Amino acid sequence: MAKSALLLMDVQRSIVDIAEADAAYLARLARAADAARSAGIPVIYVVIALRPGGPDVSPRNKVLSALVRDGLFIEGDPGTEIHPDVAPRPGDIVVTKRRASAFSGSDLDLVLRSRDIDSLVLTGIATGAVVLTTLCQAADLDFGLTVLADGCLDPDSDVHRFLLEKLFPRLADVTTVDDWCRTL
After folding, report:
1. Domain containing 12: what range?
2. Dihedral sign, CA of 105, 16, 151, 5?
3. Which residues pair with 50 in a beta bridge?
4. Tell me, what CATH number does 151's domain have?
5. pTM as predicted
6. Sheet of strand 119-125, all strands in order from the earlier edge strand to the far edge
């Protein structure tokens, strides 16, 4: 029997603002987190936070070096905080990453393996960044995978749609928050 965890990834103040996430999106994530907690499924938040000055960001990394240059997602900045509409509760876990994937530059794999978790339910912003990179890495690590389609958001609707309809179904079960909650 699979032991699952729900990942809420990059649902941070600045990212929610950039992606123009609405109240309905945040309410769906909160509903998924509440359902997971009620079912005894761990809720793990993954946040990106870069060190001041970017000592661990190569200038060859276009995306991250631009973030450091612009002073975005720096440790301690209020924009890196998890959005209050989906804030962690006691017992939830928060993992900090330094790259796009939830696994890169974090201790996520250690946390999952320590709890014998072998199946992940993915949500987050952006579909074409943290969700895509985490999904690919988790598939390579042999995790069972589910993606909550309406628990993902991307500023580019074409990228979002392509990933959810064409790529993700090859690697994971793709469903909605409501349908997933009904299975718990």
Report:
1. 4-182
2. positive
3. 74
4. 3.40.50.850
5. 0.96
6. 93-97, 43-48, 4-9, 119-125, 144-153, 173-175
What is the total residue count of the chain? 184
| Burial class of residue 96, CB neighbours in 10 A (0-12, 13-18, 19+) | middle
Task: Tell me which residue has tokens 């905080």.
Answer: 81
- In one letter, which amino acid is 114? S
Q: What is the pLDDT along the chain (184 residues), one digit of tens a residue?
A: 579 999 999 999 999 998 888 899 999 999 999 999 999 999 999 999 999 989 989 999 998 988 888 888 999 999 999 999 999 999 999 999 999 999 999 999 999 999 999 999 999 999 999 999 999 999 999 999 999 999 999 999 999 999 999 999 999 999 999 999 999 9
Structural domain total, the chain: 1
